[in-house]
């Protein structure tokens, strides 16, 4: 642990390898990280991937994946995998849903068919998928509606208990999800309840869903002294560089987000201080790499002008190269922070990095 901050450099053991934290997980929603092969991810230094229970349940089906050897074999990735519970997608993607204390009935965004998730169903799907880390089924409420957050907290806690009871596989680590919106007392109540279940790790959910960044950081400040120091903490759906650094400073160990792959498909690249949009005409004749300090394949072989050409022409290679760069950027960022924590230099590293990032606007998970 870094003595000057809340940051931790730890090791979390899974059946498919040891995770050194802080760690960023590229998101493979459909059992693939868009535009990258598993071997590309290995070369980039990825050690953890995230896949999505809701999407894989709908297509191709969790039982099919189970019958084909589980998610690791199905997608050709032999490192650790984390699956979420499907709760966020049920609430964010389904136009029609009905919530009760037993579970959620929802309408598929693919074909309009109706389905039902309960805590037991979510655990069963994740056991079929076979990820190393699985998540308890929870409700993700609007973060600023105190009455609703307070009401949903009881449901989330009851569902967490049912997930613990439903779990049958000893080779999967079940994390609980701390909810409570932006309200410190509700966050503490949720954390204390879940810690009473003695789970192997704890996620912080219900953030980066539209609240201000200041509110998100304040909530993490509340969580840092409460959550166990000897168990991993996972901030769900967060991947903006400034949020990752601020999260590490506040004791977060695990991050995931679609941001690096999604913005790549829209022609944007992460750089120190924010991002650049290569669709911009000013890059048409620019011979420089995306980032002169970056050692990724895209930056060591191609110019901004070439990448802009690929983006404007909608060439697949443009998506591949920008995704390569953006994923490398975030993986290198957490690698540098791990090193800085070990050397006792994280505070100065973070201060320099964050000096280029004004804290403005709402937070967004980008799931």
Percentage of residues in strands: 15-25%
Mean pLDDT over the full residue set: 95
The CATH superfamily name of the largest domain is Queuine tRNA-ribosyltransferase-like
Number of domains in the coordinates? 2
Give the CATH class of the largest domain. Answer: Alpha Beta
**Major beta sheet, strand line-up:** 3-14-13-11-10-9-5-4
Class based on secondary structure composition and strand pairing: alpha/beta
Number of helices: 15
Give helix % range.
Answer: 40-55%
Distance between the first and last residues' Cα: 30 Å
Task: Walk me through the structure.
- The chain is an alpha/beta fold.
- The protein folds into two domains: 11-258, TIM Barrel; 264-354, no CATH class.
- The chain is 41% helix and 17% strand.
- The chain is built from 15 helices and 17 strands.
- It has helices at 38-44, 53-58, 62-67, 71-75, 87-93, 119-129, 146-166, 184-195, 213-223, 241-249, 259-265, 297-301, 304-312, 316-342, 346-354, and strands spanning 11-14, 17-20, 23-26, 49-51, 81-83, 97-99, 104-107, 114-117, 133-135, 173-178, 201-204, 209-212, 233-235, 254-257, 268-271, 274-277, 362-364.
- The strands form five sheets. The protein has an eight-stranded parallel β-sheet with strand order 3-14-13-11-10-9-5-4. Strands 6-7-8 form a three-stranded antiparallel β-sheet. Strands 1-2 form a two-stranded antiparallel ribbon.
- Helix 6 packs across helix 7.
- The longest helix is centred in the C-terminal third of the chain and has 27 residues, at 316-342.
- It starts with 10 loop residues before the first strand and ends with a strand.
């Amino acid at each position: 642990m870094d003595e000057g901050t809340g940051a931790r450099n730890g090791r979390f053991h899974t059946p498919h390898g040891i995770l050194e934290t802080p760690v960023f997980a590229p998101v493979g929603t459909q059992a693939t990280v868009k535009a990258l092969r598993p071997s590309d991810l290995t070369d980039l230094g990825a050690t953890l991937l995230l896949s999505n229970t809701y999407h894989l349940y709908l297509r191709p089906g969790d039982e099919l994946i189970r019958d084909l050897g589980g998610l690791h074999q199905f997608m050709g990735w032999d490192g650790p995998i984390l699956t979420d519970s499907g709760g966020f997608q049920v609430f964010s993607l389904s136009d029609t849903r009905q919530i009760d204390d037993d579970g959620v009935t929802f309408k598929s965004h693919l074909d309009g068919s109706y389905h039902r998730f309960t805590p037991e169903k979510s655990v069963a799907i994740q056991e079929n998928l076979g990820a190393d880390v699985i998540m308890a089924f929870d409700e993700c409420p609007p973060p600023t509606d105190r009455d609703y957050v307070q009401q949903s907290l009881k449901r989330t806690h009851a569902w967490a208990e049912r997930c613990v009871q439903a779990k049958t596989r000893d080779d999967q680590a079940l994390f609980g999800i701390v909810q409570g919106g932006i309200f410190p007392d509700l966050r503490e109540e949720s954390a204390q309840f879940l810690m009473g279940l003695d789970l192997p790790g704890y996620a912080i959910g219900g953030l980066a869903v539209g609240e201000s960044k200041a509110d998100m950081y304040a909530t993490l400040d509340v969580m840092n002294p409460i959550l166990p120091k000897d168990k991993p903490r996972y901030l769900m759906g967060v991947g903006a560089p400034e949020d990752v650094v601020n999260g590490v400073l506040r004791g977060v160990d695990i991050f995931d987000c679609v941001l690096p792959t999604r913005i790549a498909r829209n022609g944007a690249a992460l750089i120190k201080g924010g991002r650049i949009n290569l669709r911009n005409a000013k890059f048409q004749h620019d011979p420089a790499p995306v980032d002169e300090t970056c050692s990724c394949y895209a930056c060591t072989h191609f110019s901004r002008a070439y990448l802009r050409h690929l983006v404007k022409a909608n060439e697949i290679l443009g998506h591949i190269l920008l995704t390569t760069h953006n994923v490398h950027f975030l993986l290198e960022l957490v690698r540098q922070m791990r090193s800085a924590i070990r050397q006792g230099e994280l505070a100065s590293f973070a201060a320099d990095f964050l000096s280029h990032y004004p804290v403005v606007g709402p937070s967004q998970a980008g799931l």
